[in-house]
């Protein structure tokens, strides 16, 4: 991958890629794999960019597709390794301050959502309009508001369950 392409066409949107990858991964190692795969796929598909949408929309679309595909194919591997990594995360979590705990709790809750719902809420948290969200995920903008409301309710339930487990 050319350094110029990375610096000019990927790096300005690294924050988007990082947030999406973080929502679909459970470890730093997995995150790094997803991030690299997203960057590689953006580079590989750069010629397919039809310029019918913004480059950032293309970045979202590629990142979400890569992460959702990797999430599905790695789910079996993740289940086997999850127990060991969860123990390590719990041990290191004792050193994280309260704000980081809340952010991590939100990401854990987001990871429990269906892939499509994860994509919608990530775009919503990025303050994308309903129209932009619909364009990125390839759906009708009319149902985005309802989906977001349902996703928020689900996240509230998941976070409340976690809080009651900690009491």
Features:
about 170 residues, mainly alpha, Arc Repressor Mutant, subunit A
Describe this structure in words.
With 167 residues, this protein is mostly helical. The chain folds into two domains: 1-94, RNA polymerase sigma factor, region 2, helix turn helix motif (Rna Polymerase Sigma Factor, Chain: A, Orthogonal Bundle), CATH 1.10.1740; 96-167, Arc Repressor Mutant, subunit A. Helix content is 78%, strand content 0%. It is built from eight helices and no strands. It has helices spanning 3-10, 14-24, 28-44, 55-93, 98-111, 115-125, 130-137, 144-166. The protein starts with a helix and ends with a helix.
Q: Into how many domains do the coordinates divide? A: 2
CATH topology grouping of the largest domain: Rna Polymerase Sigma Factor, Chain: A
Structural class from helices and strands? Answer: mainly alpha
**Straight-line distance between termini:** 49 Å
Write the layout of secondary structure elements.
Blueprint: H1 3-10, H2 14-24, H3 28-44, H4 55-93, H5 98-111, H6 115-125, H7 130-137, H8 144-166
How would you briefly describe this protein structure?
The chain contains eight helices and no strands. With 167 residues, it is mainly α.
């Amino acid at each position: 991958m050319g350094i110029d392409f990375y610096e000019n066409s990927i790096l300005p949107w690294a924050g988007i890629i990082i947030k999406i990858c973080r929502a679909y991964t459970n470890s730093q190692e997995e995150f790094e794999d997803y991030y690299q795969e997203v960057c590689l796929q953006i580079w590989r598909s750069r010629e397919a960019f039809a310029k019918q949408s913004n480059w950032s929309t293309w970045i979202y679309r590629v990142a979400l597709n890569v992460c959702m595909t990797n999430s599905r194919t790695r789910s079996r591997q993740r289940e086997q390794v999850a127990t060991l990594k969860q123990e390590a995360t719990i041990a290191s979590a004792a050193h994280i301050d309260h704000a980081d705990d809340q952010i991590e709790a939100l990401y854990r809750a987001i990871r429990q959502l269906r892939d499509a719902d994860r994509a919608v809420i990530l775009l919503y948290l990025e303050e994308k309009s309903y129209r932009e969200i619909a364009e990125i995920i390839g759906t009708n903008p009319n149902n985005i508001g309802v989906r977001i409301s349902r996703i928020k309710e689900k996240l509230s339930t998941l976070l409340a369950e976690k809080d009651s487990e900690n009491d």
